[in-house]
């Protein structure tokens, strides 16, 4: 038993020795699709570590709050993601990873590049205190499988809660001017949308039909100050048989 334990420790230590990552002829980092699918189906982060990179990374793990964007898919050359940040958000966290990262840039609503990020061979991770209100953009250039997640810590008097209590019923806590329900694919592409109608102080209903493909539920709209907001349900739903 002791020898097995020591052997395991040695293997773990050896795995963190810096060395060339295992890539195919397209320069794509080899990943375990089982663990990637687990992250994609539950709204988690999938870390695209090159062998030995974690040991020297000094990683600052982001603390996730309310899910804004969850996207898992494949990139052929480049893809841009919009990240709405509503009024008074205290913090935004972003995770972006891909099999071959040629370029990853986080851009503020004013158009300037966010420089204070953690950059790795295949990932970009950022925690932004008091982010500017508006639409942030993430530009990814590269190829292969990717995962992008964005989260916010709302203002105390902002969007306090969003509960998906039924397929077409939503509870919204906080000041909202207008909202709509959207069904999106695993990579975030919109399947269908429906306006949400307020039924009481915090309850909204939509007239909608569940998709016949795997989907997530998204609530998006405009806050009391006219800025866009978005919240995404972490679980990926499978269509009914």
Can you tell me about this structure?
- It is built from two helices and 14 strands; from the N terminus they run ααββββββββββββββ.
- The protein is mainly beta.
- It has two domains: 33-153, Jelly Rolls, CATH 2.60.120; 161-232.
- It has helices spanning 2-15, 33-42; strands at 66-75, 78-85, 91-107, 118-119, 123-129, 134-153, 161-166, 169-173, 176-184, 190-195, 197-198, 203-205, 216-223, 228-232.
Provide mean pLDDT, rounded. Answer: 87
Strand content: 35-45%
Helix content: under 10%
Compute the CA-based radius of gyration.
Answer: 20 Å
Give the biggest sheet.
Answer: 6 strands, antiparallel
The string of secondary-structure elements, in order, is HHEEEEEEEEEEEEEE
Poorly predicted runs: 1-19
Number of strands: 14
Helix/strand structural class:
mainly beta
* Assembly form of the protein: single chain
For the record, what CATH class of the largest domain applies? Mainly Beta
User: Judging from the principal axes of the Cα atoms, what is the shape?
Assistant: globular
CATH topology of the largest domain: Jelly Rolls
Count of helical regions = 2
Whole-number count of domains: 2
Q: What CATH architecture of the largest domain would you give?
A: Sandwich
Beginning-to-end CA distance, first to last residue: 47 Å
Layout of strands and helices, then pairs:
Elements: H1 2-15, H2 33-42, E1 66-75, E2 78-85, E3 91-107, E4 118-119, E5 123-129, E6 134-153, E7 161-166, E8 169-173, E9 176-184, E10 190-195, E11 197-198, E12 203-205, E13 216-223, E14 228-232
Antiparallel strand pairs: 1-6, 2-6, 3-5, 3-6, 4-5, 7-8, 8-12, 9-10, 9-13, 11-12, 13-14
